[in-house]
Design brief:
313 residues, five-stranded mixed β-sheet, elongated, 14 helices, alpha+beta, Chromosomal Replication Initiator Protein Dnaa, Chain: A, Alpha-Beta Plaits
């Protein structure tokens, strides 16, 4: 399984989903739901998480949360590990409770937080568990609608302020906003997610790429990175190498292989296939040997660096 792209920074805003292993229930009793909500509270105390919205479904959960400390991994590790330990201990079981890695979508909160909150609160309705979200006790909707007092650690202001400045009126308008979508085919905001990792307007996406993604090492097992950060294609790399070192020369081929490995983000198998069907190990060996040559030949190193910069422009 390829690794998901995790973009973490102070103040980031996320939509989080985590499912039960084999899609089995992760909550079986009222105490289970209550205990998980308790871990949400402890996540705010220990790790500074700001919980803006949640919905606990029988087989999975949804969160809309903010990370002032830029520590999403620590927050989710606390939630899933603590709850798994509780669940297993209570039932005398061992093993994983959650299915693989959680899904974390970085969100442009100014443009999508309100819409996502509605999407999250309507989960029980879409799953035909209730006809109205006010009938479901294991979400934050009752707080947003003003029917229950909020917990000290829970935050509604950011989303409600987008509807109205007066709390009571904002709650009333929020209920209307959610109710209007019941029984209608409203667009799923998560269908707009880019590279399985990012939900936001073009300006936000560009800011994230330039500030938090560009320049980080590209892992072949995180394919979503290639969708967010433009990388030179193999043909461009080959042509640029041949322009400097001659067409179909042994040196231009070695340079092209090396740069393809370092810059393209494409798997070794795909690179080898492009260069005449050589094996992945041959691509890797070429890189290691060529790096030795670069250390020994200053002029060669300078020329290759110029090519690298042109390909990255």
């Amino acid at each position: 399984m390829s690794r998901p792209l995790r973009i973490e920074y102070p103040g980031a805003f996320y939509h989080i989903t985590s499912r039960g292993n084999e899609r089995k229930p992760i909550y079986q009793t009222e105490k289970d739901y209550e205990r998980f909500i308790g871990y949400l509270e402890s996540a705010t105390e220990r790790y500074g998480a700001r919980i803006h919205c949640f919905c606990l479904m029988p087989t999975h959960y949804h969160l809309l949360l903010e990370t002032p400390r830029g520590n999403l991994h620590s927050i989710l590790h606390h939630l899933n590990t603590s709850y798994t330990n509780y669940f297993n201990s209570r039932r005398g079981r061992v093993g994983h409770l959650f299915q693989g890695r959680y899904r974390g979508i970085l969100v442009d909160k100014d443009n999508y937080a309100l819409e996502l909150s509605r999407y999250i609160h309507l989960n029980p309705v879409r799953a035909h568990l209730v006809k109205d979200p006010s009938q479901y006790p294991w979400s934050s909707y009752l707080v947003y609608s003003g029917r229950e007092k909020k917990w000290d650690w829970f935050h509604t202001d950011f989303i409600l302020d987008q509807i109205g400045s007066k709390k009571r009126e904002a709650c009333r308008q929020y209920q209307k906003y959610v109710s209007e979508a019941i029984g209608k085919r409203t667009e799923d905001p998560l269908k707009k997610v880019v590279a399985s990792a990012l939900l936001g307007c073009e300006k936000f996406r560009e800011w994230v790429k330039k500030r938090w993604i560009e320049g980080i090492k590209l892992h072949r097992d995180i394919p979503s990175l290639r969708k967010l950060v433009p990388r030179p294609d193999l043909l461009s790399i080959l042509k640029e190498s041949e322009r400097v070192f001659g067409e179909r020369t042994a040196l231009s081929r070695r340079v092209a292989l090396y740069l393809a490995h370092r810059l393209s983000g494409i798997s070794l198998g795909e690179i080898g296939k492009f260069f005449g069907g050589i094996g992945p190990s041959a691509v890797s060996q070429n890189t290691h040997r060529f790096e030795v040559s670069l250390k020994q030949d200053e002029k060669l190193s300078e020329e290759v660096e110029k090519i690298r910069k042109r390909l990255s422009e």
